[in-house]
Amino acid sequence: MGMYDVFETDEDLETSGVWIDYGDFRVKIASAGPGNKLYVKYAERKLKPVRRAIEAGSLGQARSNAIMSDIYAVSIVQEWEVKDPKAKVAADAAWVSGIEDRTGKMIAVNKENIEQTLINLPRLFSDLQEQAASLSNFRKAENELDSGN
Fold first, then answer.
1. Exposure class string for 134-143: b at 16+ Cβ within 10 A, else e
2. Are the CB atoms for 30 and 75 separated by under 8 Å?
3. Model confidence over 101-147: pLDDT tens digits?
4. How far is CA 71 from CA 5, 41, 67, 75, 87, in A?
5. Rounded to an integer, what distance in angstroms lies between the CA atom of residue 91 and that of residue 22?
6. Number of domains in the chain
7. Are 77 and 26 in contact (CB under 8 A)?
8. Residue 131 near residue 76 (C-beta atoms within 8 A)
């Protein structure tokens, strides 16, 4: 496998996003990389005021999580769906837009709810960050293999 096969990403996929399937719910995410111009610009704007604190290692975890969850809610997370709880057979379940809250209630997919969910579930947030940064999710060669080309 050559270096282009390893490092070349599909620019359309970086912005149009990929689905990360967690079984009963799935999240469509864009890339947290240079191919996602919205992410690059928005992250730069949000991180600029705290850059010195980051460099000094004095930015607290709660503040860091709040900033990053905002960045992800605006520029990375594109859609959030759950399997329709009304489906009689799990295999027949259709995907419906929404986020399941702590009580099992469906809430709207919007910036505030995405941010709060990412803050409430730091391990999910961590996994989404890894997935958004993973070359393999947005790699051109793998996308062509998946599509049968």
1. eeebbbbbbb
2. yes
3. 999 999 999 999 999 999 999 999 999 999 999 989 998 755 555 55
4. 29, 10, 6, 6, 34
5. 15
6. 1
7. no
8. no
96 DSSP β-pair partners: 82
In this structure, what are the phi and psi dihedrals at residue 54, rounded to the nearest 5 degrees? Answer: -65, -50
Q: Six-digit token pair at 94? A: 């259709």
DSSP, residue by residue, 18-75: EEEE-SSEEEEE--SSTT-HHHHHHHHHHHGGGHHHHHHT---HHHHHHHHHHHHHHH
- For 50, list phi and psi in degrees, rounded to 5: -115, 10
Range of the domain at 127: 3-146
Which pLDDT score, from 0 to 100, does residue 86 have? 73
- Amino acid (one-letter) located at 124: L
Q: How many residues does the chain have?
A: 149
Token output for 47: 């991180």
